[in-house]
C-alpha cells in the first residue's frame, strides 16, 4: 500500500503545482475542494465535503500550502484508497489539470496522448523526492526501451554526448523536459510519428499497465470446440483476451496463480504450435503463429507463474527498485566518502596548524638561542680581547726587563774593569787582607740573605707561573666549552629545552671563570706589591750595580758594594783566575 500511495502522490503533486498559479506554494480552498472531489471520484473513495472545512477551521480565508493540505489528503483520501480504481482515469484527471500550463507550445513528433503516456512513465521512473525529476540513469533506461521498441539501434555515444552537455546545476529532468526531449526526436531520428507512438504505447503497456506480453493467437472454445483468433494480453496474475488489439471487446480472462502450469502440446487437428494452460478449474488450448512465438509465450507464462510462487513483483518494477537501491547505495557511499574526505581535510588542516605552531615555536626558540649564542660569543670575544691585552702588557714588561738586563750588562763591563783595578790594588794592599776577610764574612752573611731572598723570589715566580698555567687552563677550558657549545647548538633542534638549560649552566661557569680571573688578577697585583716590597728591602745593598728585575732564576751573590750582578759559577771562575795569577807572581 505504501508503494501505491507514493505513486498517487506524484500525480497529485503535479495537479497541486498546476493550481499554484503564482508559484507561492499555496492553493485556494475552493480549488482544493474541487481537486479533493475529483480525487475521491476517480479513486472511488467516499467524499466528505465538510471534512476539508473542518480540517482548516482554525485557518483564515487565505490559500493553503502543500504541507497544510497533506494531512487532509492522507487522512480522508489516500488512507481509504483500495486497489479497485482505474489508474489510467486517475492519471488522466491529474494530467488534465497540469497539461495546459506546462506542456511546451513547440511542435513535437508525438501526440498529446503520447505525451500523457510519457508523463505517466515519468511518474513511475522519477525519484521519490520533490520537486519530481528523472535522473540520467532512468532517462537512459527509458530511451533504450523506446529504441528497442522502435526496432532501432541504441546510440550510446550520442547519449554520452548529451550527458556531457547536461546542465550541472540540475540532477535530472522534469516531466515536461522529458516530454520535450522525446518529442523533438533527438534520439529517434529516421523514425516516423506512428513508429514513435507505437514504441511509447508498448513501453507504457509494459511499465504502467504491467503488460508482460501481448499478441494474436488462436484459442480453442470450451463449448463449440472451434478455434478463434484473439488478442492476448499477459499481466502478472492474469491473461486477458480480446476480439482485437484495441481492447474494446473483452472476451474473457485466464486467472493465474502458483498452482497453474503451462505445457507444450503436439500438433493435432491441423493446428500447429500448440500449448496448454492448466488452471484450477479450466484448461485452455492455444495455438501460436509459429514455433518462436509459441516458445516466447510458454517462457513468459512460466516466468509469470514462477514470480507468483515467489511473491515477487513484475520484472520491470523489481528492476526499477534495484536501480533505486543501487543509486541510494552509491549516494550513501559518495556521502560517506565526502564525509571521510572532509574529516581528513579537517584533520590535515588541524595537523597543518599544529605543525605551523610548532614551527613558529621552534623559530622563536632558535631566535632566542641565536641571540644567546651571539651574546655568549660577544662575551667570549671580549674576554679574549682582555686576555690579549694582558698578554701584550706582559710582553711589554718583559721587553722592558730585557732592556734593563742589557743596561746591567753594560754596567757589568764597567764593574769588571773596576774589579781589575781593585785586584791591582789588592796586590799592593796586603794589609787590607784582614779587612777583605772580614768583608768576605760580611759578604757570606749577605749572600745567605740574598739566597733567602732569591728563594722567596723563586717561590713567588713559581706561584706566578702556576697562576699563568691556571690562566692557560682556563683559556683551554673556555675553548673546550666553546666546542661543547657548538656541538650543543647542532643538537638544539632535537632537544631545545635541554640546550637552553645547558646554556644557562655554561653562563654560570663563564661567570665563575670571570670570578677566577678576577681572583688571579688580584693575586698578581698582590705578587706585584710583594715584589715592590722586596725591591725596597734589597735597595739598601745596592753598590756598583742595582738588582735586575725580575732577575735571573739562578741564585745571586752579595758583595761589599751590594748585590752582585754575576752568578756563583762566574764568581768561582774569577776567584780561580785570581788565585792562578797570584801563584804565578
TrEMBL record:
Gene3D superfamilies: Pleckstrin-homology domain (PH domain)/Phosphotyrosine-binding domain (PTB). The keyword Plastid does not apply. Keywords: Cell membrane, Cell projection, Coiled coil, Cytoplasm, DNA-binding, Membrane, Nucleus, Phosphoprotein. Its main location: membrane. One of its GO terms (biological process) is regulation of protein localization. It is found in: Cell membrane; Cell projection, Lamellipodium; Cytoplasm; Nucleus. The keyword Transport does not apply. Residues 210-306 form the PH domain. Residues 316-530 form a coiled coil. InterPro entries: EF-hand-dom_pair, EF-hand_SWAP70_N, PH-like_dom_sf, PH_domain, PH_SWAP70. GO terms for cellular component: actin cytoskeleton; cytoplasm; lamellipodium; nucleus; plasma membrane; postsynapse. It comes from the Eukaryota. Pfam families: EF-hand_SWAP70_N (PF25530), PH (PF00169). GO terms for molecular function: ATP binding; DNA binding. SUPFAM superfamilies: EF-hand, PH domain-like. CDD domains: PH_SWAP-70. Phosphatidylinositol 3,4,5-trisphosphate-dependent guanine nucleotide exchange factor (GEF) which, independently of RAS, transduces signals from tyrosine kinase receptors to RAC. It also mediates signaling of membrane ruffling. Regulates the actin cytoskeleton as an effector or adapter protein in response to agonist stimulated phosphatidylinositol (3,4)-bisphosphate production and cell protrusion. The SWAP complex consists of NPM1, NCL, PARP1 and SWAP70. This is Switch-associated protein 70.
